[in-house]
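Comment thread on ticket #2218

A.B. wrote:
> Attaching the input chain for the structure job we discussed in standup.
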Amino acid sequence: MASSLVFASRPSLSRTDFAAVLQRATGAGLIPDADESRIKTIEERLVAKFRIEQADHAQLQQAAKQFVDALVADGALDYADLCVAAVPAGLTEAPQLLLLMDVDSTLIKQEVIELLAAHAGREEEVAAVTEAAMRGELDFTQSLIQRVATLKDLPVDVLAEVGQRIIFSDGAESLVKRFHAAGHKVGVVSGGFQQILDPLAAHLGLDHALANTLGITGGILDGTVHGKIVDREMKETMLRAWAQEHQIPMSATIAAGDGANDLAMVAAAGLGVAFNAKPALRDEADVRLDFSRLDAIADLVLDDLA
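C.D. wrote:
> Ran it. Output below, let me know if you need it in another format.
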């Protein structure tokens, strides 16, 4: 079966630089030609797709990574300028896809636990623990329990205040719209909090949304998490469950995140995307996306560009 090799630029990368990349890829034997008529434009990003017949997908994926590494090593471009992704046939030929994303620092720009901790005067302390957990240096479940405990005795009103401060990642709304317009499913699964996530999911019209539930007693946060904690294993479990619910094979799933807590779902998906990610995830994902346009994921897998 054929794989696709997709080149997607950051916004405002020059067409000359992008065309030079394609020429170099042709010279390296990655793509059959550098025909500039293949270059499509969307919101100042450039995208070019090449169907690679009879490709060994694992070898193509490795060659794509090595190609980008060489561009960066030569000083031609930076990782934040370009994404080159080997997309398997299981995605490009599937009638329906499931995209599952992390929330904090992926769907949205912030870490919600840090916004909440700021109300308790513990933001720096909590941010340090969050960073260590996302690097994979701490057990996520224990670190979450530790961080949530700092929220004890905050009034429940802070949830609404924090919710109003949430900023979607650039391209998040466009990404969901493009997937839905093409008939696909979109969900999120988060180590954050359901009380914050529910309004965001409703706004975007997401098909699925799961996060942790903060304990509330008498209008006060009690410093606990109720129910089973959404950890890396739960994220993979939900990816598989929602795919099965929609009768979508795992080969037609995409998972995107930024930290170690996303490793299992990113590894299990048909295409795993590291979005501005920590090394623990970035080095294991199928795709490294280092510029801040979440809808570049749609550029990679959808055929909706004129």
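A.B. wrote:
> Thanks. Noting for the ticket: The longest helix spans residues 57-73.
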